[in-house]
Design brief:
The complex is a heterotrimer of chains A (398), B (369) and C (549). Chain B has helices at residues 11-38, 42-67, 73-81, 83-115, 122-138, 141-166, 184-197, 203-206, 215-242, 252-259, 270-299, 306-322, 327-359; strands at 261-262, 266-267. Chain B has 369 residues and is mostly helical. Chain C folds into 3 domains: 2-158, no CATH class; 169-302 and 479-549, no CATH class; 325-469, no CATH class. Classes of the chains: A alpha/beta (398), B mainly alpha (369), C alpha+beta (549). Chains A and C meet through helix 1 and strand 1 of A and helix 12 and helix 16 of C.
Chain lengths: 398, 369, 549
């Protein structure tokens, strides 16, 4: 009796489930999108979105034993684009061309055209956030050219752009701290929070000289600036030094070379490699005055020395430390100046005020962007040079 | 005073049951709902206030249960209020429990469909969940308690896993300013988790199955404390990682899991977390379902609770599908309707029962067991 | 064959007017002490006819007639089964004594023949009297010899069983690197000896029951009095008494009849070939059931974790063992879940894979004509086939088959584009994991459950797997083995037992017996006998003690 019932129930369940593999998609029926670019195009008097996607076409593996050791070929990266009234529309319009399901689960970065960003990021962020496949760690980048064009630029060392940007974010950029790629979750957080604005990494498209004697120049990208926003609108660029100033200020800089001038009439004759840094922002008010203090402490090693002076003394190191902190200060001030110029609160002075003194923040919140350029910012740096590398005294040819 | 079911559970099993009664859905929904109103102070409303409220509920429910050791809800409410009103209380609780099961099942189905498998009809998830819970209920409270022990440890593992791995992303500056806007937003934010903390009222339904009923109160307090700590950590981490933005995510813990990335290889783990969550919610549904079934069996004077399992399951399943039209209704239900409703059956009715019992000096016989 | 014999006995006895027809044993069973008696008569001639009738067509049953004494010679009849008795005993201790030495004796009075033979003539340790045909027949079948004496209504049963049996060899199914090499044999008394040698205590009890109405197999229940739970022992007795079956050929028969739940794929009784393991379980409070004619002893009650333990675990260093235990837990999970997990990820949760891996899998699957589920099913099915073939085939051929199967078919299937290389890896990993589970029946249950989980994974992805696992957990939680919850150290959670489940603690730390099995005498050793270096490290412990005074 019992067993019969069990068998019937199991049979029912099986009948019920076997045909209905609703969400099932075999992996070979996916169009794996590694990165997308977003442009706008004017068409029939309407602004339409141009969605460009880089899709991986997996190589046909095996295909017989003839391949020998080399085995599978390289995957093919393939750029497609389509227009749509909304981004979702454009996304599905891709499927008018592609026989596979667009799969965002492996999306690594999103490139947004500068002009689109000037009009506002909110729509795009909303689209990215609502999609359950897009991960909050997707990186955001701005490009001055059409995103459509950016997506066929070459990655050279890496197989594709997605991988390259990924590695840049993970490894390379923090070595100089001159650029910084933020992810979707952070950027959204900064967009929605009051008193802080996002800084989105910017691409500079360049042509590098041909790699072969007779070859054509190679189109590549360089990530060397940051796009400052006011609320969700792009307002202007920070160059790489300013980006480092910004990173130092918010405490996200990790390492990087600082070329400084030690002797009066030379130019940049010492290099200090920063090894760690922390930054903290404190904001206070005094009547209608807003004052901000950026406290930075940094450590560095001596990494290059162009003069022959005796430097491996306590005194010498102190002088170097002084110069080092001056260099940091200059960079941070440059970034602050740019932030004020652009009226973009990338440092989050407003948020800091909100944190430290919510009541005062209420007073300034409404006209914060008028207050911002008037903030008196002081930068306090304590920097030390700790080590001199593998040699103590400068190299002296005799 | 027949118990219908002979199973007995130990004090620690009881405590873990209480944790499971609240935790699986609370962890998913509460951060967004509290942060929405209380902002950076959400952990006070979702953690501290909630714990205090949970203590009150535990006190009321377990004091009521201790007055009538070994008796079920329907039995002693008949003793307190008279036969018919007692049955009425039973009927009310059947309604409440079945409704809650339906809602929890729906919450879970909604969660799976929106963040996991969009094309699959929600019926499938709900059906499987109810079927699993029904077979657990048929196996009795002992088996549920044993399963629960295992599942709770899995859930804790999942939570600790998420929390530790996203810890490096946490920015505790996001927790300031505290007490912005005074106490009112904190209270507003407290109303939603209040309903969740109040779910501990199930103590007075489950108490007769405890080996030693005197352990109930202590176990309840421990569970309340544990829940308070977990909820506080949950909210704090969600806030610290996402800031106010956390309120915009429907399931912040899930988003936290998607945000995990350690050294470039330990990432994309959210599906694991979801899978573990299935286990937790199955247990939660099983316990509520079990309570509904035993209250129903006692109300209708049945000798065995098993015949009730299937009909109640069908009701729960149907209800879970028809109860809300869309996910916004679900969220609004917790946001607005839930407060008054939950207060009634979680606090007011038990408190009234206790009050009347005290006033009419009703007390169950102390059985030597 | 025994059936026929029984019927013969019935017929023969029926023909004889003096004797009553015995009731069919199938109706009464062994347990109720055979109330029906079929006494032998005092006429040797008549008894011989009946016995010959009983053992009709049993040419291995020998009837040896001889005489004792000369004055009035007493006729004797010795009945035994050739090959089951010791021939030298027949010669030396019986025939020699009765036929040659009787001349030394005084005259035999017919009334005292039996007494004389019993008391003075036969130098045999195990000797009893019986006057019942059924008992006599049973004894002859067991390998004893029956000596019938003319004029006596009782026969002498001479315990001279001896038969060819395998010597003590190394157990095949549970090999160890370190540990005793002795294994149980098919002879039960050898097995009890092996256990007695390990536990020299009068508290070690052995109860022998006969099960099998025709086969009359000896079943031995062993336990340590005072450690084993009396209720469990009683329950074992009851369940064994309940078995009404024609024959028990292996302990597997017993296992199927005494387990708590017949529907479950999980083994609820542990079987072992190793006496050291059985002894260890005896000391923990388990009951051992030995079955004659098989080297596999049964251990009850057990929990799931017993199936992940090998006896060697306790002989090698605890740190290593702890790691190996963890490894086995991982192996269980892989063996149960890996194929379904692969299916779920490849068809539902592609975002869980690292991008590079996804591309590789996608390109590997590019030419494969089947969905991942079918692919996995084919490969897992093939593997199970190969494994079965490898076990059944004669050993040299078996190896060839598994090598051919694994290498050639796998490689060919990939090359032909039938399956993806990833799938081959998955299948082999699953196989290796399931081999590393020490107990065969434990591994078998996981092998079976793998397939429903694959179906669930193919229809609902990870959610499906989780539903399956929850159903499995529910099932495991509702299982009991002789009253002990099946996954007991975990659910219900017992802290002291965790020392010997997922990992193994050092021996000195495991001072309690498993709480649900050996709770009658919970403490198994003194607390905290932590090995320590000598008190004064400068002096070796065997040094002079003069300084201490």
């Amino acid at each position: 009796m019992v067993s019969k019932r069990v068998v019937i129930i199991i049979a029912l369940i099986l009948v019920f489930f076997l045909p209905g593999c609703w969400s099932r998609t075999e992996v070979e029926t996916l169009a794996i999108v590694t990165n997308i670019g977003i442009d706008t195009v004017e068409q029939d008097g309407h602004v339409k979105f141009l969605l460009t996607a880089n899709i991986i076409r997996p190589p046909l593996a095996g295909g017989g034993t003839q391949g020998g050791g080399s085995g599978a070929g390289k995957p093919v990266y393939w750029r497609v684009a389509s227009l749509g009234d909304t981004l979702s529309d454009a996304e599905r319009n891709l499927n008018l061309r592609i026989p596979r399901r667009i799969f965002y689960g492996h999306l690594r970065f999103v490139v947004i055209n500068e002009k689109v960003a000037r009009k506002g990021l909110a729509d795009i962020i909303d689209y990215l956030h609502r999609n359950m496949r897009i991960r909050p760690r997707v990186l955001l980048l701005l490009t001055p050219e059409k995103a459509f064009d950016t997506l066929i630029r070459q990655a050279e060392l890496e197989p594709d752009l997605a991988r390259m940007i990924d590695e840049m974010d993970r490894m390379a950029l923090s070595r100089s701290s001159k650029a910084f790629i933020d992810d979707l979750a952070h950027t959204t957080g900064q967009l929605t929070a009051s008193g802080i604005d996002p800084l989105v990494a910017g691409i500079t498209p360049i042509e590098s000289p041909p790699t072969e004697p007779e070859g054509k120049p190679v189109k590549v990208i360089r990530i060397n600036r940051g796009g400052a926003f006011r609320v969700d609108k792009f307002v202007g660029w920070l160059d790489s030094d300013e980006v480092r100033g910004y990173l130092l200020g918010i405490g996200k800089a990790q390492s990087g070379p600082f070329s400084i001038t030690l002797k009066p009439h030379s130019h940049k004759d010492v290099n200090i490699m920063m090894t760690r840094a922390t930054g903290k922002i404190k904001v206070d008010t005094d009547g209608d005055e807003v004052t901000a203090v950026i406290e930075i402490s940094a450590e560095g090693d001596l990494s290059e020395f162009h003069t022959t002076e005796e430097i491996a003394t306590d005194e010498g190191m102190k002088i170097l430390g002084q110069k080092f902190s001056d260099a940091i200060k200059t960079e941070v001030m440059k970034a602050v100046k740019k932030s004020k110029e652009l009226k973009s609160d990338i440092f989050g002075f407003g948020a800091a005020l909100h944190r430290d003194n919510p009541a005062e923040w209420k007073r300034f919140e409404k006209h914060w962007y008028e207050v911002l350029p008037r903030i008196k910012v002081t930068v306090k740096v304590t920097a030390y040079v700790r080590r001199t590398g593998m040699t103590a005294e400068p190299f002296k040819p005799e | 005073m027949k118990l219908i079911e002979e199973g007995k559970i130990s004090g620690s099993q009881f405590m873990w049951l209480l944790v499971t009664i609240v935790l699986p859905t609370a962890v998913l929904f509460i951060p967004a709902l509290t942060i929405k109103y209380s902002g950076t102070s959400a952990w006070i409303s979702g953690g501290v206030f909630t714990t205090i409220w949970a203590f009150i509920i535990v006190w009321v429910a377990s004091t009521l249960g201790e007055r009538f050791p070994g008796m079920t809800l329907v039995d002693y409410s008949s003793l307190i209020l008279g036969k018919f009103p007692g049955k009425l209380v039973g009927a009310f609780y059947i309604f409440v429990l079945v409704l809650t099961v339906a809602i929890v099942v729906r919450e879970f189905g909604e969660f799976l469909v929106s963040s996991f498998m969009q094309q699959t009809p929600i019926f499938v998830f709900n059906f499987l969940l109810i079927a699993l819970a029904a077979s657990a209920v048929r196996n009795g409270i002992e088996v549920i308690a044993r399963m629960n022990h295992f599942v709770v440890s899995l859930m804790f593992f999942a939570l600790i896993f998420i929390f530790t791995l996203v810890f490096s992303e946490a920015d505790f500056k996001n927790l300031y300013p505290i007490f912005e806007g005074g106490i009112l937003p904190i209270f507003r934010g407290f109303f939603t988790p209040m309903g969740w903390a109040g779910e501990l009222f199930l103590i007075f339904i489950l108490m007769p199955y405890l080996n030693n009923y005197r352990e109930a109160k202590y176990a309840g307090y421990k569970a309340a404390l544990m829940l308070g700590v977990i909820m506080s950590i949950d909210i704090v981490i969600a806030l610290a990682v996402f800031g106010q933005q956390a309120a915009d995510y429907v399931f912040p813990v899930h988003t936290l899991a998607t945000y995990i990335s350690i050294a470039g290889f330990l990432e994309r783990v959210e599906a694991f977390i979801l899978a573990l969550w299935v286990a937790g919610i199955t247990m939660k549904v099983s316990i509520w379902y079990y309570c509904a079934v035993i209250v129903a069996a006692r109300t209708f004077n049945l000798q065995d609770y098993k015949p009730v399992v299937l009909p109640l399951g069908v009701i729960c399943l149907t209800w879970s599908i028809t109860i809300f039209d869309n996910i916004t209704q679900l969220v609004e239900h917790f946001d607005i309707a839930w407060i008054g409703f939950s207060l009634t059956f979680e606090f007011i009715v038990p408190a009234l029962l206790l009050l009347i019992a005290v006033l009419r000096k009703k007390r169950g016989a102390e059985k030597g067991r | 064959m025994f059936n026929v014999l029984r019927r013969k006995l019935k017929q023969t006895l029926g023909r004889n007017k003096d004797l009553k027809v015995p009731h069919d044993k199938f109706e009464h069973g062994e347990g109720n002490g055979d109330k029906e008696k079929h006494p032998i008569s005092n006429s040797l001639e008549q008894n011989k006819i009946i016995l010959k009738e009983i053992f009709n067509n049993c040419s291995d049953v020998k009837f040896r007639e001889f005489e004792l004494g000369t004055a009035p010679a007493v006729k004797l009849l010795l009945v035994y089964i050739d090959g089951m008795v010791s021939t030298s005993d027949i010669h030396e201790s019986i025939m020699n004594q009765l036929m040659l030495l009787e001349g030394l004796m005084e005259e035999i009075s017919p009334e005292h023949t039996l007494e004389l033979i019993r008391e003075k003539l036969l130098p045999i340790g195990e000797l009893s009297e019986n006057g019942d045909f059924i008992k006599i027949t049973d004894n002859i079948l067991m390998g004893n010899a029956a000596l019938l004496i003319d004029g006596e209504k009782t026969a002498l049963i001479l315990g001279i069983k001896e038969w060819e049996s395998r010597g003590i060899e190394e157990p095949q199914s549970e090999p160890v690197v370190r540990g005793p090499r002795e294994g149980f044999t098919e002879r039960m008394l050898t097995n009890t000896m092996l256990l007695r040698r390990r536990i020299k205590s009068s508290r070690l009890k052995l109860e022998i029951k006969k099960v099998g109405i025709v086969s009359k197999t000896d079943i031995g229940i062993m336990y340590i009095d005072g450690i084993a739970n009396n209720k469990v022992v009683e329950e074992v007795r009851k369940r064994i008494d309940r078995i009404k079956i024609d024959g028990i050929l292996e302990s597997g028969y017993i296992e199927e009849y005494i387990q708590d739940d017949w529907k479950t794929p999980f083994p609820l009784v542990l079987s072992t070939e190793r006496p050291d393991r059985a002894a260890a379980h005896l000391l923990e409070g388990n009951v051992i059931i030995l079955t004659d004619t098989t080297p596999f002893a049964l251990i009850v009650p057990v929990t799931f974790f017993h199936f992940l333990q090998a006896s060697e675990d306790y002989y090698t260093h605890w740190v290593g063992t702890a790691m190996i235990r963890l490894l086995r837990i991982i192996a269980v999970n892989i063996s149960l879940l890996l194929p379904s997990f692969y299916i779920a990820i490849v068809t539902f949760h592609q975002e869980m894979l690292p991008t590079a891996l996804l591309i590789n899998i996608a390109s590997a699957r590019e030419g494969v004509p089947f969905p991942a589920f079918i692919e996995a099913f084919i490969m897992e099915g093939t593997f199970e086939l190969l494994r079965e073939a490898g076990i059944r085939l004669p050993r040299p051929v078996g190896q060839a088959v598994s090598i051919v199967g694994a290498l050639v078919i796998g490689q060919a299937a990939v090359t032909a584009g039938l399956v993806s290389p990833a799938m081959v890896i998955i299948v082999s990993l699953t196989a290796i994991s399931s081999f590393s589970i020490p107990n065969y029946s434990g591994a078998l249950s996981l092998r079976i459950l793998r397939f429903p989980l694959m179906v669930l994974a193919a229809s609902l992805g990870l959610f499906g797997i989780m539903v399956g696992l929850m159903a499995l957990l529910l099932h495991l939680c509702s299982l009991r083995s002789f009253g002990v919850p099946y996954i007991s150290p975990i659910a219900p959670f017992i802290r002291s037992d965790m020392k010997d489940s997922v990992i193994r603690f050092p021996l000195w730390a495991m001072f309690t017996r498993p709480r649900l099995i050996g709770y009658k005498e919970p403490q198994r050793q003194e607390y905290l006998q932590i090995p320590k270096p000598p008190a004064n490290p400068k002096r070796p412990s065997g040094g002079k003690e003069r300084d201490n005074k």
